[in-house]
Structure formats: C-alpha cells, structure tokens
Amino acid sequence: MSYRPLPLILRYAVLIVGMLFILVPMYVTITVALKTPAESAQHFFSLPSRLYLGNFEEVIREKRFFTYLTNSFYITCVSVLLMLIVIPMAAFAISRNYHKRYYRLLYALILSSIFVPFQTIMLPIFRHLFNLHLLNQHGLILMHLTLALSEGVFLCVGFLKNVPLELDEAARIDGSGIGQLFVRIIYPLMRPIIVTLLILNALWVWNDFLLPLVVLNRHPDYWTLPLFIYNFKSEYSFDYNLAFAGFFITMLPIILLYGFLQRHIIAGLTEGAFK
C-alpha cells in the first residue's frame, strides 16, 4: 500500500486546532493575570484595559513563595543532572551488550514500564517511600529518576545503535578503558539526544504535580511551585487573578528554556527513535 500524504487543507486545519489548544489557555492566563478582580468579573475573556501588575506583586509577597521557587529549582536541577548521567550510562551498557540475553531481558523490562499508568503505582510508591522515610525532596528526586529511565533509555539506545562499533575497537587499541571510551568518545557524540533529554525532563519535572502531591504534600516546607499554586488556588478559590498570576510565574522559566533550546528537540528525537 502506497503512502498518501494528507491534503494540504487538512494539514493546516490540524495545525490550527493544535495551535488553539496551546494559545487559548495561554491567552486566558496572561490576560486574567493582568486584570483587576473587578475587570475580570465584568469581562473575563477580554483584553485588559491597562497592565495591572498588582496580582504578580501579591503572589511574590506570599511569605513562602521564594522557598517554593528554590525547591522547584533544586529538585529540577538535581533530578535532570542525575538523569543525564545515569540514563546514557545504562543505554550505553545495553546497546553494546544487546547480543547477550541478560541485557535484552533488562531492556525489555525497562521498556515495559512505559505502559504502566502512573495512577496504578501511585499508592505503592507512597507506601514504599513512607517505609524508607523518603517522603522528602530526595525521595521525589529518586522517583523522578526512576520514572524517566524507561523513555530515556529507549531514546538513547536507539541513538547508540547508529554509533559504529569501530569507534569502540579503535579506542581500545589506543589503550582506552570502558570508562574513558564512554566519557571521551561516546558521551560527546550523544550531545543531540542529551539535549533532548534535558529539555523533555526539565519540562516534566518543573511542571510535575502528581508525584510531588504524593510525596511532598504532607510537608509544606518541601512544596514545589505547582503544589504552591494548587494550595494557593484552594485558599483563594474565587480570586482567579492571583491564581493565574501564579500560573504565569510558574510557566515563565520553562517557556524561556524551551524557546532557547527547542530546535534541538526534533533532531534528538529523530536520531534517537527512528534511525
């Protein structure tokens, strides 16, 4: 059966619908955050008559705001750093030993976790972390690393299958051990997929709500920004202006990161999954 591309009109229609799903929520978030409560009550979806920054000032003046901001930065940076170390190492070991039965079974076991919904393991995760006294930031970092392993290993193994084995043999002839081979040759070659892992996992960890809710909700000192916004919104259930101002502040750092590095995502995903 020959492949027939979608008609041009249909492709543009799908693109427009996708853009609306992204731009409409962002429009509502920004416009409501820049309005006074009285103006939002009268015209919720209209543009603000003037730029009102009082909502942002009130959110930032929240006594623990910078604590939650620091928690989010710490958890995101440490989690992503560990992912960028552990995932490429695991993928390198699997890709170079894939001919062995043990590594094929290990790879299949890692990939099988992709198909397990988080909701089905949410309560067991809480129970195990409670028993290990890890209902804190370190337990959350450990869980982020564990849950990121399957997708990251899948992408990296796909990428490494295209790195010729002759490089390994040449490095061994030059006297390099397995550690030097990985650090000096393989890891630099993995730069496109490493950048992809950085962006995707930074987006996920920074915006993650369910896992921090399970692990950290009993300890307000450890809350991240999404948890802060959730509880803030509950406290001010009728003040949408403050809630949307909080949403915008939370989104801003990750939007800037994505805008700066987004050109690397397609290249990394393509090289890691389809070659």
Description of the structure:
The chain has 14 helices and no strands. It folds into 2 domains: 52 residues, no CATH class; 218 residues, MetI-like (MetI-like fold, Orthogonal Bundle), CATH 1.10.3720.10. The mean pLDDT is 84. With 275 residues, it is mainly α. The protein starts with 7 loop residues before the first helix and ends with a helix.
Q: Which tags fit this structure?
A:
2 domains, globular, 275 residues, single chain, MetI-like fold, mainly alpha
What is the fold's blueprint, element by element?
Layout: H1 8-33, H2 37-42, H3 54-61, H4 65-96, H5 101-112, H6 118-131, H7 137-160, H8 166-173, H9 178-189, H10 191-207, H11 210-216, H12 225-235, H13 240-261, H14 263-273
Helix pairs in contact: 1-13, 3-13, 4-7, 4-10, 5-7, 7-10, 7-11, 7-14, 10-13, 10-14, 12-13
Describe, in short, the structure shown:
With 275 residues, the protein is mostly helical.
Form type:
globular
CA-CA gap between termini: 22 Å
Q: What's the β-strand tally?
A: 0
The first-level CATH class of the largest domain is given as: Mainly Alpha
Order of helices and strands: HHHHHHHHHHHHHH
Q: What is the arithmetic mean of pLDDT?
A: 84
CATH third-level topology of the largest domain? MetI-like fold
- CATH architect. name of the largest domain: Orthogonal Bundle
What percent of the residues sit in helical stretches (DSSP H or I)?
A: over 70%
- Strand portion, in percent? under 5%
**How would a crystallographer describe the biggest sheet?**
none
Number of domains: 2
Number of helices: 14
Residue stretches low in confidence (pLDDT < 50, at least 5 long) are none
Name of the CATH homologous superfamily of the largest domain: MetI-like
The helix/strand class is mainly alpha
Q: Output the radius of gyration.
A: 23 Å
